[in-house]
Amino acid sequence: MKLSNYPYLVQKEILDNMEISNLFLMSFVSKNMKKLVKSSQVTRFKSIDRIVFDMQNTVHPTIYIQFGSSVHFIILSSLISEDLETDYFQLNVSGKIIAFKCVPLYYVPCRTRFPMVAFNQCDKQSIFESIHNYLLDFFGDSIEYGWIITDCQFFVPQVQHFSLALNFLNTGTDEENMEKLENIVSSSPIMKNIKTSYWRPTGTIKPESKLYRAESISIHQNNPTIPVNLGRFQGNQAFFRCHTCEISDLNEFLNRWKSGEAFQNLEHLDITMNHTDVPLNGVLNAIGVKYIDATKTPPTHTLPKVYFESGHKPNTDPIISHTYVVRKTDNRVASISIQGKALNFGVWNKTEEEFLAMVK
Amino acid sequence: MSSTEQGTSSAAPAEPTTAPESAAAPEVPESFYYVHGKDKVVHKVSAGALQHSALIHGMISNLGYTEEQAKANPFPFENIDGDILQMVVDWCNQHKGKPTPPEDTNLPKQKEKLFDLVLAVNYLEIKELLTYCCKQVAMMVKGKSPEEIREIWMIPTDAEDEAAEKEAKKRAGKEAAGETAAAAGDAK
Q1: Which of A116, A297, B78, B147 has its CA 20 to 30 A from that of A241?
Q2: Which residues in chain A have Cβ-Cβ distances shorter than 8 Å to B157?
Q3: Residue A321 — left, alpha, or beta (φ > 0 → left; ψ -120 to 50 → alpha)?
Q4: Residue B153 near chain A (CB below 8 Å)
Q5: Which stretches of chain A are DSSP H helices?
Q6: pLDDT tens per residue across span A337-359
Q7: pLDDT in tens, A175-227
Q8: CB spacing of A3 vs B134 below 8 angstroms
């Protein structure tokens, strides 16, 4: 069976029916084949939202594609400490010879086989950088290439056209963590997302920290109160989960937004408390919210998340609320919803008049 | 449902067991056409089954053949092997007037047969069957290394592609030179 004997449209139909991980391998067969794959799959490749280099698992990093909320693996990998087995094949990936083999993923239907890269710890970074460069050429630069890295083996990839997300794990004392976080953040480009878990970063972080310039932050902490010390936050989306909070902190946050003094870029804030006894409704009274007629239906506020991990929702939780506030400086509206233990705050790109026109 | 001229029966649709409630639209008898491949074996196929093929459907839609005329003028598909045409006819009959399922597991497993079927189906413009066939062809290289893919689909190496390109250029150059010489001869 000679593929080249088929007319172009048949070749395209065949390639359209191949998994992207197979197209990746196909591109190594010959230069002409790579050209054929690239030219025939332009539309498909353009529909890719993001290619993710998920380096969180230090032994088995994965590279996958996100189409909306669905995930398609392209490359698996495995840290090896011994000599390679014989069933590996070598590929020249952007000038670097890398060992691959095809392995099944047992939780994927039909035991689909995926290319798996073998790497030694010493050349891990350069291997993944070479793959990044190859994928950038193969899929094009209209796609976002996101790297997710933890503080355990942190590095800034030396590549073009990428975004960085940090998952900061709870590995030391609060003081050690704080110092480590500061060092990482200050030595990195502006992050797409910073996620921290179970310690108190924002309470004592330096005001000039680049953490506040991340596009999105997600903070889970178990200290008693949430320090809504977002005073310097210049990003778009913030997600907090904590034990409890001080109403005065929330009031301060909302008043600063209303006055236009801070959080100019904020689009969505989500605060969830584990403790049930926080009188969140007190916030509404204190800051003087406005109300939409209870008989009418308010518009729904939801946005694509700046950053989301595989298996999570790609959009912010919808806010349908009869309460809202207006920013003094530009008359922009934000819907506020308080339901149970959660406060959701969604900023509209609308003036109050435009916002009220959407009420039905 | 399919029958060959040498063979059997039963291309006609089943007779309705009860009379229709309204006699306003009398049932039009189904028309049949005849096709043959390289082996000259003629297959009788209903117009309904042939609707799957955009090519044949386009050919017959304006013919208005009588049964006798259709029989006397089978469509020749000399570029399609007889057994492949038989597969196509069988598939069209099986899926006559039915929505096509998302998968078709009855496609040939042998590489060369499938290859010929793809070419035939592409020529006859049977879209759904082409999609099934292409899926099956794509499955052949699922989880294979680049060298295995090259072997299965007989893809030339870069060196072979370059040599072929060189050869094609050389040939084109010779042909162009020949044409120039011929034109000069004509001018004299």
Answers
A1: A297
A2: 30
A3: beta
A4: yes
A5: 8-16, 20-26, 31-40, 42-46, 124-139, 174-186, 247-259, 281-287, 352-357
A6: 988 888 899 999 999 999 999 99
A7: 788 888 889 999 999 999 999 876 655 556 777 888 889 999 998 876 655 55
A8: no
Which residues fall within 8 angstroms of residue B146, CB to CB, at 6 or more apart?
A: A25, A26, A28, A29, A89, A91
Nearest to A102 among B134, B143, B152 (CB): B143
Of A2, A15, A19, the CB nearest to B154: A2
- Residues within 8 A of B (CB atoms), A 7-26 only: 7, 9-10, 13-19, 22, 25-26
Radius of gyration of chain A (CA): 24
- C-alpha A159: how far from chain center: 19
Name which of A205, A322, A337, A331 is nearest A270 in CA terms.
A337
- Domain range for A7 is 3-45
Q: Kind of pairing, strands A244-245 and A225-226?
A: parallel
pLDDT at A276: 66
Compute the nearest-CA separation of A163 from chain B (Å).
30
Which of A158, A190, A221 corresponds to the end of one domain?
Answer: A158
b/e map A282-293, b = 16+ CB within 10 Å: ebbeebebeebe
B154 interfacial to chain A (CB closer than 8 Å):
yes
A10 contacts in B (CB within 8 Å)? 118-119, 122, 130, 134
Does residue A195 fall inside a structural domain?
Answer: no
B17 is written with which tokens?
């067991």
Nearest to B85 by CA among B96, B75, B97: B75
Please tell me the distance from the alpha carbon of residue B132 to that of residue B103, in angstroms, as a whole number. Answer: 7
Between B122, B130, B145, which is nearest A25 by CB? Answer: B145
Q: Is A27 exposed, middle or buried (0-12, 13-18, 19+ CB in 10 A)?
A: buried
- The predicted structure's pLDDT at residue A109: 65
Domains of chain A: total: 2
> Mutate which of B141, B160, B162, B165 to disrupt the A interface (most A C-beta within 10 Å)?
B141
pLDDT beneath 50, residues of chain A: 228
CA distance A253 to A255: 6
- On whether both A123 and A153 belong to a single domain, the answer is yes
**Chain A contact present for B149, CB below 8 A:** yes
The C-alpha atoms of residue A355 and residue A350 are separated, in whole angstroms, by 6
B158–A30 CB contact, under 8 Å: yes
ipTM for the assembly: 0.83
User: In which residue are the tokens 């099986």 written?
Assistant: B94
CA distance B140 to chain A (A): 10
Pair (A152, A52) in one structural domain = yes
What are the structural domains, with CATH classification, of chain B? 30-168 (3.30.710.10)
How big is chain A, counted in residues? 360
Contact A88/B at CB under 8 A:
no
Residues A103 and A140 in one domain: yes
Which tokens in the block code for residue A357?
């026109």
